[in-house]
Amino acid sequence: MPYGLDLSTLIENAATWFAGTKDFWQAAALCVATIGGPITAALAILQAWANRKQRKRDLRWKQAELARELSEEVWKTAYSRCALEMIDSPGRAFTLREEKSIVIKESDMLAALTVDAEPSDKRSVFIRDSFDELFYFLERFEHCIRVGLITFEDVRFPWEYYAGVLARYKGTAVQYNRFLHYERALAFLDRFDVWRLASAAQQTGCD
User: Fold this and answer.
1) What is the mean pLDDT of residues 65-93?
2) How far apart are CA 62 and CA 150, in angstroms?
3) What is the crossing angle of helices 152-166 and 183-190, to 10°?
4) What is the pLDDT of residues 96-119, one digit of tens each?
5) What gap in Å lies between CA 161 and CA 177, rounded to an integer?
């Protein structure tokens, strides 16, 4: 044999080499498994974090969308829209169903919302129906905030403005909501500083 190696030596060296090679690949496989485990775990954590972040974005979008739809529904509903128009523009004219247009003043509105007496004419009934609908929506806003369907920030605009307008009639509004058992409507209004800091004893109502 060349280089002074006989057949038995060559066979022995080859066996040693193959044995070493097997040990090498076993060690390599163990190393990959050892390193690959944490990498796989890290990738799984990153994926879970990304999925959670996406779900949070989806939830916020759905909350904001629902809040927008609820606010739009107030304006699409005839009675609640009329209630907002009454407090925003006292002395405005309204049409009662098939009858002619009538003017509703602040004194009409406050008299109709007095809980000590039942409404005695169509004007008073119309006013009550309008505010019943409006306060029902405020009740729904507070409920949706409490159960996490929307956030307060989603409805701060435009309701902060209307909370300020309603604050001019806070005493009457508080009594009427309590008469309706709409405690959540009052809780919703209490979220606004302009309402919460207003004094119920200083309400307007003199035409």
Assistant:
1) 91
2) 8
3) 100
4) 776 778 899 999 999 999 988 788
5) 19
